[in-house]
């Protein structure tokens, strides 16, 4: 029996042979439409799978609950990371997709980071735009050289340098191949993010394709 896809989402099939599959994860207050233009820009022809976060904070969709700005409900982080990983698996089955590379911004980057640490089989890699460490203690995980690009902003008032550094360290300890670049930016994305993500994705998508062939 076909599994139901438990998130409101958009799906765009690949328009180019060899293009990667991207899982697009929006920030707080966003939706499934938000990152489609970014996905098309940083990986032309890629298959795009873009769910909407199910948690509502004052009407704003998110991927997990928070207790205050930067203070996360960790039980909810774990539960929602599981739920999203299960959605990915059902969507892969439905559309015949390989493991996706997540592209997450802010809250979307944080749930992608949680999935890397808690459900490492869900993702082939990740571009984390302005992420924070979503868990107090990093679980013991094995990320066999999973490619991860972290783009932080040196003037970001939300994702602190310290929290991003803890995440980069946890991912590295788990075995991910992490590239971390700090850009002269705040929490908002800049043209430098697009250029860096596009360049990194072209190389990472090729490595991912070689690893599965
Ligand atoms: C979060 O709540 O995940 C982070 O604080 C980023 C945000 O969504 O504002």
SSE diagram, text form:
Blueprint: E1 9-12, E2 21-25, H1 36-42, E3 47-51, E4 55-57, E5 60-62, E6 66-68, E7 71-72, H2 74-95, E8 101-105, H3 107-118, E9 125-129, E10 147-153, H4 161-173, E11 177-183, H5 191-212
Parallel strand pairs: 2-3, 2-8, 8-9, 9-10, 10-11
Antiparallel strand pairs: 1-3, 4-5, 6-7
Helix pairs in contact: 2-3
The structure holds D-malate.
Question: How would you describe the overall organization of this protein?
Answer:
The protein is of the alpha/beta class and 213 residues long. The chain is 36% helix and 23% strand. It is built from 5 helices and 11 strands, in the order ββαβββββαβαββαβα. It has helices at residues 36-42, 74-95, 107-118, 161-173, 191-212, and strands spanning 9-12, 21-25, 47-51, 55-57, 60-62, 66-68, 71-72, 101-105, 125-129, 147-153, 177-183. The chain starts with 8 loop residues before the first strand and ends with a helix. The model has no long low-confidence stretch (mean pLDDT 95). D-malate binds at residues 27-28, 66, 69-70, 106-107, 110, 132, 158.
List keywords for this structure.
213 residues, alpha/beta, seven-stranded mixed β-sheet, two-stranded antiparallel sheet, globular, binds D-malate
Task: Summarize this structure briefly.
The chain is an alpha/beta fold and 213 residues long. The protein has 5 helices and 11 strands.
């Amino acid at each position: 029996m076909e599994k139901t896809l438990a998130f409101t989402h958009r799906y765009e099939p690949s328009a180019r042979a060899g293009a990667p599959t991207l899982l697009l994860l929006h920030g707080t207050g966003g939706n499934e439409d938000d990152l489609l233009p970014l996905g098309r820009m940083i990986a032309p022809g890629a298959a795009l799978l873009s769910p909407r976060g199910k948690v509502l904070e004052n009407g704003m969709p998110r991927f997990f609950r928070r207790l205050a700005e930067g203070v996360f409900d960790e039980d909810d982080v774990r539960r929602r990371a599981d739920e999203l990983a299960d959605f990915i698996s059902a969507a892969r089955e439905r559309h015949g997709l390989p493991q996706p590379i997540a592209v997450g911004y802010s809250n979307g980057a944080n749930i992608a980071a949680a999935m890397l640490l808690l459900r490492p089989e869900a993702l082939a890699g990740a571009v984390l735009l302005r992420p924070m460490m979503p868990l107090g203690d990093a679980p013991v995980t094995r990320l066999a050289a999973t490619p991860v690009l972290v783009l932080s902003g040196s003037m970001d008032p939300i994702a602190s340098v310290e929290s991003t550094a803890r995440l980069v360290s946890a991912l590295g300890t788990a075995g991910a191949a992490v590239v971390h670049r700090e850009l002269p930016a705040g929490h908002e994305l800049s043209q430098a993010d697009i250029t860096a993500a596009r360049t990194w994705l072209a190389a990472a998508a090729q490595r991912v394709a070689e690893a599965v062939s």
